[in-house]
Amino acid sequence: MSLRLGLVINPVAGLGGSVALKGSDDVSQMALERGATAKSNARAEIALQALVPYRSQITILTAANNMGESLCQKLGFDYQVVSYEGDDNVTSDLLSSNESDTIDTARAIKQAGVDLLVFVGGDGTARNIYSAIGDYFPVLGIPAGVKIHSGVYAVTPTSAGHVLELLVRNELVTLMEADVMDIDEALFRQGIVKARRFGEMQVPAQLRYMQAVKMGGKESDELVLADIAADVIKHMDEQLFVIGSGSTTEFLMQELGLKNTLLGVDLVRDQDLIASDVTEQQILKYIEQHDQVKLVITLIGGQGHVFGRGNQQLSPRVIRKIGRDNIIIIATKTKLEALNNRPLIVDTGDSELDKELGGYIKITTGYNDYVMYQIKNPEGLG
Questions:
Q1: pTM of the full structure
Q2: Is 213 part of any domain?
Q3: Which domain holds residue 316?
Q4: Domain end position, chosen among 153, 173, 204
Q5: Domain boundary residue, one of 176, 204, 232
Q6: What is the pLDDT of residues 267-303, one digit of tens each?
Q7: Nearest alpha carbon to residue 115 among 132, 96, 135, 139
């Protein structure tokens, strides 16, 4: 019996991440002008590679060109291009694709009927899918967007592939309800996170592969954060310090008395701010001008992502130039304990770099206080 999968790829998902636009809604043209490249199809390919050995058992229902058809052709899957109520005007051109294309394709797939709908994007895409199908049948999100607050996404594209492989092998895959979340991107670009729950969809309940809904709220123990900041500050000299996003790094910047981009990347030298809310290209330019560079980052509370969520400015090129030994991860022990022994996750989009970043790493948890914690690359989660 053939497994029927729906596939919807948002071709502009995550486009604005590497160029500091903090999203892709309504800014595709601007992102491309800044030098961004589309990566959602590549991330979808990572997941669907797990199904290539089972191609004869799978039929995929999808949209034209970059919304799914092109990838199905590349990987050799049996597929059908669907349209909603006879509307064959769904576009997959990178600049003209919009949320109505996603919604119409999801509705067409619902009309045709599938066992599972796979979609690629961020929180906006999840919201569009939910508006089209509700909880009519199970879904599985492949993360490719800048904002990933929803619990309907796998932890990484590779993790999504593992779940799909379990399904096609007829292994027992139970279902659970997961929240669909989204935030206001206009406020997000101003450093304000205003998340809203829109509903629930059914997802496979393989918890080691599925993402926890991002925890909200700020760290309340200011004494611990002050100790962490003091430990980092004592090392700040003529080196360039690249300061990543998050509330923990925000506290560090407050201790330095510097303006902070909560949801962006800032550059500091000699404890002075030299550039705010920088893009990937700007970071690379400054790195070339300095002999020594340190990167200070934290992890996403409740999820454990270090790279690949909301900090795409820290691209594989940036990370390689800085080097693993020059990465300073800061976090409270409370934040680490909330992971319940799950490893930290790196999902840079470069599988070789993810492997290089894996292993145990020192995390600053106070003043002269450190713990060793494991980082796993996406393949290591399986």
A1: 0.67
A2: no
A3: 222-381
A4: 204
A5: 204
A6: 999 999 999 999 999 999 999 999 999 999 998 766 7
A7: 139
